[in-house]
Write a structure and sequence with these properties.
It comes from Ataeniobius toweri. Keywords: Coiled coil. This is Rho-GAP domain-containing protein. The protein is mainly α and about 350 residues long. Helices cover about 65% and strands about 0% of the residues. Helix 8 packs antiparallel against helix 10. The longest helix has about 60 residues. It is elongated, with a radius of gyration of 32 Å. The relative contact order is 0.07.
Length: about 350
């Protein structure tokens, strides 16, 4: 009996100790702090992608990048879109936060001492009692309601966390674009204008009458086209990349899901005529990506010349990173300068 009593006392002490630890853990819960701790402990998983800083190429004299009028219009449009979306997402997140707090209060009210006592009392009471027959459905009903409230609470917590993360990301983009727009306005305000101080942004639509060349765009030689047209970046590459940057960075299946063949053919014919169809209206993103892929796929001489294929494959066998980079640089440096300019533009976008 003494051994039994001592074991009972020891078990009681352990229960009290465990209950005290649970109470301390519950009282110390802080959703924001715990989330920040989780993000810090797994920084590489949840961190934002690195920014792509501009670095001048060898012998470049450019020390600062500034947006021209056409790009400024697009930045302002993108800024307004993000501003509108940020407002909507913030309102939805705040609403989810209120619903989460309401569900939390309902959940805590449901987990009361009365429910625990009734369930324990029901388990210890006599099975044949008439009173238990009325208690059993009531307890089961309360448990079902409690489970439903719990599911609602977890759903609202998920919505709130996802919304908060999206708000943070949109807010960062909003602040950066706001700073860029303000700088552009300040720089344009310092320059004299012929239009009574009002800045006008005109989107150019290259027509075939302005292109004095007979070189094919698709299934042609890109180097000859660049030299004949005077375009550093072929208009189709610049227009498609600009369009995808504006509308497609969060589009699922980009460059993987094929677009409408009819729309792709229409865009190809318009670009072949020297027009810029993407400046006038919006198209399906998969079709725009398909046109960009089609252009590079159909080039008479591919972006990476056939002569250098074996050299590039040999570079992949080099294990040392610095040595491999040096060999790659030597191979790419042998390409014509206009091709390297297009490569830098394309891979900056792909990065």
């Amino acid at each position: 009996m003494q051994a039994y009593v001592s074991r009972q006392s020891w078990a009681q002490q352990n229960l009290n100790k465990g209950l005290q630890q649970l109470q301390e853990a519950v009282s110390g819960l802080d959703q924001s702090r715990d989330r920040d701790t989780l993000l810090q402990d797994h920084y590489n998983t949840f961190s934002m992608p690195l920014r792509f800083p501009y670095q001048p190429h060898e012998e470049d004299q450019i020390s600062e990048v500034s947006a021209q009028c056409e790009m400024r219009c697009e930045i302002e449009i993108r800024f307004k879109q993000i501003q509108t979306r940020l407002k909507t997402v913030t309102e939805e997140t705040e609403e989810a936060g209120k619903s989460m707090l309401t569900a939390k209060s309902s959940l805590l009210e449901g987990i009361g001492d009365n429910d625990l006592e009734s369930s324990v009392g029901f388990g210890l009471s006599q099975v044949g009692s008439n009173e238990n027959l009325t208690v059993k459905p009531s307890v089961a009903r309360r448990r079902a309601n409690l489970l439903e409230v719990e599911n609602v609470y977890f759903t609202k917590v998920k919505d709130y966390l996802v919304g908060s993360s999206l708000v943070s990301k949109l807010q960062a983009k909003h602040d950066l674009l706001k700073e860029a727009v303000e700088k552009a306005e300040a720089s344009s305000g310092n320059q004299p204008s012929r239009f009574s101080g009002k800045s006008l942004c005109i989107r150019k639509n290259h027509s075939s009458g302005n292109l004095f060349h007979n070189h094919k765009l698709f299934s042609g030689d890109m180097l000859s086209f660049i030299k004949a047209s005077g375009q550093q970046i072929p208009n189709i590459v610049e227009s498609c990349i600009r369009f995808i940057n504006l509308y497609g960075l969060h589009h699922e299946g980009i460059f993987r899901v094929p677009g409408s063949q009819m729309e792709v053919n229409g865009l190809r014919d318009a670009f072949e005529r020297g027009e810029d169809p993407l400046s006038e209206r919006r198209y399906d993103l998969d079709s725009v990506a398909g046109v960009l892929k089609l252009y590079f796929r159909c080039l008479e001489n591919p972006l990476f010349s056939l002569d250098s294929t074996s050299q590039l494959l040999e570079c992949c066998q080099i294990k040392d990173d610095a040595e491999r980079a040096a060999h790659l640089k030597a191979v790419v440096s042998s390409y014509p300068e206009p091709v390297i300019v297009v490569m830098r533009y394309l891979f900056a976008f792909l990065h």
